[in-house]
Amino acid sequence: MTALLTENMPLLAGAPNGIKKLRELILELAVRGKLVPQDPNDEPASELLKRIAEEKARLVAEGKIKKAKATREELAEVSYEIPSSWAVASLGQVVEIVRGITFPASEKSKEPEPGRVACLRTANVQDEIEWDDLLYIRESFVSRHDQYVEPHDIVMSMANSRELVGKVALIGAELKQKTTFGGFLGVLRPMLIEPRFVMALLRTPNARSALIDSASQTTNIANVSLAKLRPLPFAIPPLAEQHRIVAKVDELMALCDRLEAQQADADSAHAQLVQALLGGLTQARDAEDFAQSWQRLAEHFDTLFTTESSIDALKQTLLQLAVMGKLVPQDSGDEPASTLLKRIAEEKARLVVEGKIKKQKLLAQIGADEGSSKVSSGWELVRFGQLIELISGQHLGPDEYFDSPQDGAIPYLTGPAEFGEVHPQPTRFTHERRATSIQGDILLTVKGSGVGKTNFVDQVELAISRQLMAIRPVLLDTQFTRYLLLSMAEHFQSKSIGIAIPGISREDVLDAPIGLPPLPEQHRIVAKVDQLMTLCDQLKARLGQARQVHEQLANALVEQAVA
Known about the structure:
The chain is 41% helix and 15% strand. The protein is of the alpha+beta class.
């Protein structure tokens, strides 16, 4: 079985979440007796359990441990076959379990002082014990000697969130200082068995699920009681085999570490290579430089775009090329953008006179340090605000909107949580029309973590909250305008960094410098971008299908391994 595992490690590791699943598989094989061969010369586990019972009885008689309450240990069983030399026991048979101490919150200190002792808490229970962030409490709160941790103790989170309850970490062979543990923790003290094997048992997916399912749940805390913990059944191998299992687990986990590091290095190198080659396209000095950069990219296309993130980077680069005038050829027969710009200004002036839009503040000239001073032939470098009408959303109070449609009400959007893939999917409605958007507008998220996200309005009219702005293009291709906004997403996000609640202002949107192409070229750009985005989506779909097949193969191997 180990040969099957090691021979197929690269395949398993390369599957989605592969290394995590591989680690889980190693533990599962370990506790089922399928990781190392059995040795008929080993003392059977049944004899080990007898010696453990005798040792516990001796310690109880000497007053060193408490006598555990009776459990239904004779009913302990597991759902899978185990080797003949193994035995099934409840957790309470093979470990002594001690709950942590309680003390007032006011007694906690971050500083070690005379009369105080280090105290572990749930935050210290990670993959290993975290010793760098300890609390110190007065030693008088420790009422029993067994409430100090000992070498090779297993510390368990007995009260935590549902995801973290039952998490365990091992105390090392040496203690740097005298240490106790808080009431949300428990210590499992193995009796005559290998502590690291018990750790492997408790970290298997099955054990984690059993611990979580046994926990009682309050509003936000799950608690594992001793009454539920002690009867949990586990398969116990002979002691000699426990040592062999632990050694093999360590060996295979180290191999997983190396695979993980190699994968991280490869992913990082791959991302850097993709970025460098895509950057060569957007930073090309002229047509010849662009052609050379594209040739380098095309030669390695199949090996470059093999992850979702690399395909997303390709999409973003295509948008950048589109709005830089590098995606489709210019046509000298097109009406120049300068003429289009004049018509836009005239149209906006007419709408102002008719009272359909407000007169806009004069926008500043574009400085030499803003954007690129050079645009494609026939294009104009302008402020985004010269081309659009911008409607800022307004806040509505809870009593001003409702969850079901009513006569005369319009949809009300509070933010990008109600964005669909293309069009919004409103779940609230209002009679208020303080700030409204109309069909054909582009919604832009301007506050919160979704700054820069967009959606097309397909409703006749809807109200928008202050988390959104509506962009109404004037004489522009609407889809081209959305591509402009998508290409500016990183620019908008950079404007919102360092603010308590991320957000951008009207000025950030209106003042953004952009290149304006002739209207016919806008249509050609949209057609080309649509075509290339479809190809990217197909590439991503094929990637997803390949990963699905990979995962199915990996799952089949796992099933074969544990069968």
